[in-house]
Amino acid sequence: MSDLRSSDFVRITNQELANKFIESSVKELREQIKDNKVILALSGGVDSSVVAALLNKAIGKNLICIHINHGFLRKNESAEVVRMFREEFDLNLIYLDEAEYFLSKLKGVSEPEEKRKIIGREFITCFSNEAKKLKDIKFLAQGTIYPDITESKGIKAHHNVGGLPEELNFELVEPIKLLYKDEVRQVGLALGLSKDLIFRQPFPGPGLAVRCPGEIDRERLEIVRESDAILREEFQKCGLNEKVWQYFTVVPDYRTVGIKDDKRTYLYFVVIRAVNSVDATTASVEEIPYDILFKIRDRMLSEVVGINRVLIDITPKPTGTIEWE
Ligand code: XMP
């Protein structure tokens, strides 16, 4: 597979080269798609966002994007994706709130791989159901990038929007499949996507579901979402967001005894994880100054309902993986 990208393919290292890529890609897309319609699952991650912006430039309203909120996205994330692509890019965007549906499908499920597989499968079901309702769609666009084709990942079931419904018989459009991640970013910037989106930290397809180890319940999901929002806000305030590759919180399915207002509590705890990595195959732990940690701890303990402790995970990969599940 690795010879797909021939040696004369010019590496996209700056905005000028990105513009050239966009120009030729738009031309090729118009030739391939003509007046037909294309659907795309738009998660709001870098890859699907770049594909959306590229196709929007090439075919405008003949692109129909579907954003599925599986309920495991970060605080305000879905709303922001919908706002940005509708208001700034004027995209044809269908929003599906499937949070309750996914929770119901995961009821009683605690095994990590099973959780991942269910989320992947149900994502495809939701997407297919919506796609079947739309008429005259000929193409399915995907944000496949070069490493997706050339690297096989064996440790965990990966849930990306790749590998979408074969039974729907769409022809595939994969406009960034020959690009490495840094090139996708160059192209995204040239297409006018914000730096915040383009340089955002990696976020797993199953989202916060893998940060709620064991069976997911609404309470812990809310704790993960709120504590993650505080962590991100504080990292941004002190500039650590520029220094740390990935940072998030995990809330295990376990409660401990604590005390508040002279009363015994029996509540969950938040684990902070902050790692540096180049390509996610290995990771080292980022040292965070204690004064920053204390500030984050204080905010979490006072603002997040349902916890009485804050811990920090100092495990490198290996032996831990970056996510807990
Ligand atoms: P692990 O936990 O395997 O994660 O060390 C390595 C990197 O991959 C991210 N990750 C995912 N990304 N779909 C994705 O697109 C997934 O299912 C998925 N699972 C983990 C993880 O956040 C880390 O950056």
Task: Describe this entry's structure for a reader.
This protein has 325 residues and is of the alpha/beta class. It has two domains: 15-198, 3-Layer(aba) Sandwich (Rossmann fold); 207-313, GMP Synthetase, Chain A, domain 3 (2-Layer Sandwich), CATH 3.30.300.10. The protein is 41% helix and 18% strand. The protein has helices spanning 15-33, 46-59, 77-88, 99-105, 112-133, 146-150, 181-190, 195-198, 218-238, 240-243, 290-303, and strands at residues 37-41, 63-69, 92-97, 137-141, 171-173, 246-250, 256-260, 263-276, 284-285, 307-312. Strands 3-2-1-4-5 form a five-stranded parallel beta sheet, with helices on both faces. Helix 1 crosses helix 2 (46-59), helix 2 crosses helix 7 and helix 9 packs antiparallel against helix 11. The longest helix has 22 residues, at 112-133. The protein is globular. The two termini are 29 Å apart. It binds xanthosine-5'-monophosphate.
Oligomeric organization of the protein chains: single chain
Q: Rounded to an integer, what's the Rg over CA atoms?
A: 21 Å
**Count of discrete domains:** 2
Please state how the strands of the largest beta sheet are arranged side by side: 3-2-1-4-5
- The first-level CATH class name of the largest domain: Alpha Beta
CATH architectural category of the largest domain? 3-Layer(aba) Sandwich
Can you tell me the overall shape? globular
From N to C, what is the helix and strand string?
A: HEHEHEHHEHEHHHHEEEEHE
What would you give as the CATH superfamily of the largest domain?
HUPs
Q: Got a strand count?
A: 10
The number of helical elements comes to 11
